[in-house]
Structure formats: structure tokens, C-alpha cells
Amino acid sequence: MLQAAVILGKGPTFKTSGSSLIRELMDLQEVIYKEKVPIDIEYHGVRYEGEAKPIHASCRDGICGEFEVTLNGAFFGIMNSTMSGWVMQGEMEQDFVDQIGDEIHLWFDTF
Length: 111
What we know:
The protein is α+β, with helices and mostly antiparallel strands. The protein folds into two domains: about 1-35, no CATH class; about 35-110, no CATH class. The protein contains three helices and seven strands; from the N terminus they run ααβββββββα. The N and C termini lie close together (about 5 Å).
């Protein structure tokens, strides 16, 4: 999380106190929760563009486990991160769900 603060230009300075650092990290956490994860994938020759919006109730310590997925202007469903991988309600092919999940992971890895 500290690495993300530095990347976003909110990193601590040598003069930063503990309470100030905590406040900065909490601000960063708010940014992450409000952000929509951009999705841009190709599956079976079709390009899908859209976003995965974190469901705030599923977010703990900067990590969200559920996302509302919208692709090509249509709501696709809610993705859940489980111990065994990503799942999505409905009749989606697991390879497609995994590819969307990979995009979500890549986005969070940038922080």
C-alpha cells in the first residue's frame, strides 16, 4: 500500500508523522475504492471494453472481492474472487471470467 502512495505522489516524506501517514494511506484507500477497473480484452475474436466497479461492502484492507462488470455498454454480472479463483453468476465460460479476473488483478498490481 505504501508503494501505491509513492506512485500516486502521496508518499510520505521524512518529516511525515505516523498519524499523517495513516491519514494519507486512508485517503489512498478511498481512491482505490472509488476507482473503476478498466477492462479491455479480446475473447473468441470479439473485443470487450468496459469496467469492473468494486462493490464497497466487499473491500477490506484495500482489497475488493466483488465487482460489477460492464462490457461493451452492457451489464455482464457480478464477479467474485474466491479461494479457487474468479466466479461470475450466469452462464459465462470460465475462460472468459478468468480473463476478466486477470485484468482486475493486473490493475491492482499497479498499486
